[in-house]
Amino acid sequence: MLYTLTLNPAIDLFIDLNELLPKKVNRSNYDDYQENGKGVNVSRILHRLGIENTALGFIAGFTGNFIKDKLEESGIKTNFIEVDGITRVNVFLNAETEYKIVNKGPLIPEEKKIELLNQLNLLQSGDYLFVCGSLPRGIDVSIYEEIIKICKNNNVKLILDTSSKEVLEYLHHGVYLIKPNDEELADFFNIKHSLSEEEIEIYAKKLIEMGCEKILVSRGEYGAIYFDKNHTVAVTAPKGVVINTACSGDTLLGTFIGKSYLGETIEMALAYASASASSTAFTEGITNFENVPELLKQVKIIKNI
Ligand SMILES: O=P(O)(O)OC[C@@]1(O)O[C@H](CO)[C@@H](O)[C@@H]1O
């Protein structure tokens, strides 16, 4: 079974405007509310690939219920823990350029954190757990060590998408896959400039030495690179008109793992994931995969770069 854990889910409010002017009433052309947060996005992608999965995490108030209801209406199982407060609404605005406003979300009490860890302890050998997105208030980075240890003890394949560099201290327990983007990878190692392909390889290989089995580096318009002990595979990204880049990284990750789970080779899973991530960038929400076969024609696969 596959599980996604979104500790701090969100409704994403997408707004399209011709322009955004200060001190004016800016009327939108289009607005859309979607159930999101990084793990929720992965759940939706897996579901669209026909892979059954359960969404876990903390939800609060009417916004939290919206996320739960939307997921369940679409056929995705949920087992969220309810907390007081209101699940955040993040705003993604397209007006000549992109604006992204990401809020804090509710405070998680200690007893709810313990409830979550007990829930994770019930996962079975061979299960997959995606842990994606930022930490809500009340939860500190040490939760990653607790989750990594639970997964190790229960033989659960842990897939991490986090920008918290403290997680590096816990990798020695063993992690199945980590997905930084190129900026996060640089930040993990306190590098202030954009990483070259050679540097991406150097730092990804350091993550392998530190205890990660597989590394997936998302690179936006430059595609993605996958590393494990025996393989290095890079793919390019298709070109198109970008509407909204939010959720592209989640699409890449969900599609890559999903396609691999369904038996695709690393190369094909990665190429399809890159086309899907671009498809998400070229639409308001996440891809429905319709234009992916066409976009896939533009993707180049480069092995052992
Ligand atoms: O604050 P986090 O958890 O890092 O990011 C949350 C978020 O910006 O990430 C997703 C896109 O990746 C959006 O759906 C969501 O609003």
Automatic annotation (TrEMBL):
Keywords: ATP-binding, Kinase, Nucleotide-binding, Transferase
Nucleotidyltransferase recorded as keyword: no
Family of this protein: Belongs to the carbohydrate kinase PfkB family.
Carbohydrate kinase PfkB domain boundaries: 6-288
UniProt name for this protein: 1-phosphofructokinase
Pfam annotation, one family: PfkB
InterPro entries to which the protein is assigned, alphabetical: 1-PFruKinase (IPR022463), PfkB_dom (IPR011611), Ribokinase-like (IPR029056), Tagatose/fructose_Pkinase (IPR017583)
Family matches, as Gene3D superfamilies: 3.40.1190.20
